[in-house]
Amino acid sequence: QSFNMRAEVSIAVNFVLSFLYNRLPRRRVNLFGEQLDCNLTAKFQGHWYPDQPLKGTAFRCLKISGEQSDPILLEAAKETGLDVGELLMKHLPQNLTLWIDPGEVSCRVGEKGSVTQLYSSETAAADSAESLEQQQQQQQQQQQQQHPCAIQPLVPDP
Q: What is the model's pTM?
C-alpha cells in the first residue's frame, strides 16, 4: 500500500491545532497550521518509507515540551508571528510526543502516559469501506421511501 504522507501530516497538524482553537485567533491558528504542515512535509521528504514504516520514526517524532520542543514547531510559530513562549507554555500540553509514520499517527502525553493511536490507514480504509456501505444502504432506503413500488421484484403469475 502506498502512502504519500498527506493524511498523516494533516492528522498530526490538526491534532496540534485542536489545542489552539478557542484560545488564539482562528486565522493565526490556521496560518500556523499551514506553516507547520509545510515544514513537516519538507522535513519528511527523503525520510518516508512506506515499505518500512518504523524506519526513521525517531526523525519523524514531534516533541512538544516547553523550550525543549521540536525546532520545526518553533519555526512555524515564528514564521506566522505567534508568541512562541505563550504557545508552548500556555496552550500546548507539556510532554506531548507525536509519532508521524507511514500509515499511522500516534501520540503520548507525559513521559509515562499511554500511547494513543490518532490515525491508522488500515482503520481509515475499513471506516471508508463501512461508510460507503452505509451510504449505499441509506440511498436504497431513501429510494424505497420515495418509490416504494419501484423496487418490488416482479413475480410472474402462476
A: 0.76
